[in-house]
């Protein structure tokens, strides 16, 4: 039996905990009904006694404190609130997670719970994912972490991370499949209506401009790109707009935004195309020209690379005027 500690504290996003517990409890029930040994012992773990924010009427769930348990797997939930305040407030939990991992426990984060893992130093030199909107902040705080914003799940050296919001339940499905076998994984996929093959969350992302820096000349260049993305811009023209040499402009732009100017231009173009696909039934070729592309093959390839879907599939998924 694998002991799973689900971290609970007053800032935790309870839906990530209850969703995970529901899936793990039902899996235990399946084993109970078939007369097999239970796979999971679930423990809600808090820093102090009495932090029983969830009253769970299940024989498979108990409460404990950090000092009273040594789990095989720790699940760290998403959390609300200011990142700096929460990370400082819950430093004892972060240190405990670090200690448990060093002693052989595996660790899994749900959505923004990845901050706790990064703060514990567990993601240094490793890949991770989280909610797509966390990317800029995590990359800024933890530059040695390889943030994969498009991924739903990462699994590396006993450390698991998951994508944003309810997509984090795909990680629980993945863990059930990994620990209990493929047959049980397929059962859980059907029971909870979760796609076992879902690996990307990039089509959910909204490109927000990467403006969390103080380079005013680069901010001016970003505004110029955003206002003129539909034109045939080139790097010399954009660099000239900022009164920089092309080489210096590209270097400063990447330092400020973590993207090259060309990558940034592509992201802006595709975001404009996404919004057009969501709102109307305009011919995709015409939409492509409005977004600043001349070649349909290139447009499709770039669109799919960034969103994980073709333009046609994206429209089918998000345009209410298109019948399902």
Note the topology.
Layout: E1 2-7, H1 14-33, E2 40-46, E3 61-65, E4 73-76, H2 83-89, H3 91-102, E5 106-109, H4 114-119, E6 127-128, H5 135-141, E7 146-147, E8 153-156, E9 159-162, H6 169-180, H7 182-191, H8 216-228, H9 235-241, H10 246-257, H11 261-279, H12 284-290, H13 296-307, H14 311-318
Helix pairs in contact: 1-6, 6-7, 9-10, 11-14
Could you give a quick summary of the protein structure above?
With 324 residues, this protein is of the alpha/beta class. Helices cover 47% and strands 12% of the residues. It has helices spanning 14-33, 83-89, 91-102, 114-119, 135-141, 169-180, 182-191, 216-228, 235-241, 246-257, 261-279, 284-290, 296-307, 311-318; strands spanning 2-7, 40-46, 61-65, 73-76, 106-109, 127-128, 146-147, 153-156, 159-162.
How would you describe this protein?
It is built from 14 helices and nine strands. It is of the alpha/beta class. The strands form two sheets. It has a seven-stranded mixed β-sheet with strand order 3-2-1-4-5-9-8, with helices on both faces. Strands 6-7 form a two-stranded parallel sheet. The longest helix has 20 residues, at 14-33. It is globular.
Give the averaged pLDDT, no decimals. Answer: 87
Order of the strands making up the biggest sheet:
3-2-1-4-5-9-8
Rg over CA atoms, rounded to whole Å, is: 23 Å
**What does the largest sheet look like?**
7 strands, mixed
* CATH level-4 homologous superfamily of the largest domain: Class I glutamine amidotransferase (GATase) domain
What's the CATH topology label of the largest domain?
Rossmann fold
Termini gap: 44 Å
Overall shape: globular
Helix content: 40-55%
Q: Would you identify the regions where 5 or more consecutive residues have pLDDT less than 50?
A: none
The oligomerization state is single chain
């Amino acid at each position: 039996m694998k002991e799973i500690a689900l971290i609970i504290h007053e800032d935790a996003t309870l839906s990530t905990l209850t969703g995970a517990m529901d899936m793990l409890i039902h899996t235990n029930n399946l084993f109970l009904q078939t007369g097999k040994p239970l796979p999971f012992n679930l423990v809600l773990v808090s820093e102090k006694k009495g932090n029983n924010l969830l009253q769970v009427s299940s024989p498979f769930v108990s409460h404990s404190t950090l000092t009273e348990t040594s789990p095989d797997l720790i699940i760290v939930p998403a959390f609300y609130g200011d990142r700096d305040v929460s990370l400082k407030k819950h430093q004892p939990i972060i240190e405990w997670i670090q200690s448990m991992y060093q002693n052989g426990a595996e660790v899994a984060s749900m959505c923004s719970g990845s901050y706790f893992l990064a703060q514990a130093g567990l993601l240094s030199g490793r890949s991770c994912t989280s909610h797509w909107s966390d990317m800029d902040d995590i990359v800024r705080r933890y530059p040695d972490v390889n943030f994969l914003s498009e991924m739903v799940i990462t699994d590396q050296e006993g450390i698991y991370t998951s994508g944003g919001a309810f997509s984090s339940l795909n990680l629980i499905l993945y863990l059930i499949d990994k620990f209990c076998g493929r047959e049980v994984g397929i059962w859980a996929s059907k029971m909870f209506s979760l796609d076992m093959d879902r690996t990307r969350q990039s089509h959910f992302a909204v490109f927000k401009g990467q403006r969390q820096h103080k380079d005013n000349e680069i901010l001016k260049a970003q505004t110029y790109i955003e206002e003129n993305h539909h034109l045939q811009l080139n790097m010399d023209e954009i660099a000239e707009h900022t009164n920089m040499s092309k080489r210096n402009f590209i270097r400063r732009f990447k330092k400020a935004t973590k993207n090259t100017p060309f990558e940034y231009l592509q992201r802006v173009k595709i975001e404009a195309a996404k919004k057009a696909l969501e709102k109307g039934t305009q011919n995709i070729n015409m939409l492509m020209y409005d977004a600043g592309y001349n070649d349909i093959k290139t447009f499709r390839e770039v669109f799919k690379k960034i969103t994980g879907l073709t333009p046609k599939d994206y429209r089918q998924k998000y345009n209410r005027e298109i019948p399902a």
